[in-house]
Structure of 3',5'-cyclic-AMP phosphodiesterase:
Amino acid sequence: MLGLNTRESLRHVVAQVRREQPCVDLLLCTGDLSQDGSVASYEAFRQLTGEIAAPTRWLAGNHDEARLMAEVAPELVQSVTDVGRWRVVMLNSAVPGATHGLLAQDQLSILDDALATAGERYCLVCCHHQPVDVGCAWIAPIGLRNADQLLQRLRSHPQVKALLWGHIHQPWDERRDGLRLLATPSTCIQFAAGSEAFKVSEEQPGYRWLRLHADGRLETGVQRATDFTVQLDFDSPGY
């Protein structure tokens, strides 16, 4: 993509995680795991991320083929995972053939059931598409179309501490009505923050780490693959 070898950038991000995070309880991959949606690409992604010794969960993004993801790794596309005092809920917001996101009724039902049965667990909810305006005009139309339905549900359940997504290829961290809203950088090309039209940044690829404490506190930050050199070729095929 724009001259950047995305498999190699992912390899460097995985190596960065292994250096910095010696004990990982759960690895969350929040969509656009592949560009061509092929079986070979998902097998390669699984092999590369498998170097991180942790249970893993996958979400489909707008570039993915959800059916093939489930065929390649059915155990990785589970919607609900409990880790200690926390419940992690993965919601598929991908719309076949479209760039924007939408949580279909079956996904909203998964969320309703997961929150209703969480008991005393705190909850982290994940999807692919952004549910809020992140200040990039060109990204706004390809966000989550029924974000209000999602946010209303989350606000009515105080045990939900955070909502995490991918899609925007840049970090995001804010609080609204007691809910932490988080996005992660991409493992390949980064989009420039605050851009009106499509624009990429020459920041390094990276990942977001999270510490989910037993008392409901959440600590998080973003780390970049410091040993990866970003060299973009704007005359090559783009996004």
Q: What stands out?
A: Residues 6-224 form a domain with the Purple Acid Phosphatase; chain A, domain 2 fold (CATH 3.60.21.10). The CA atoms of residues 2 and 238 lie 5 Å apart. The chain has a mean pLDDT of 95.
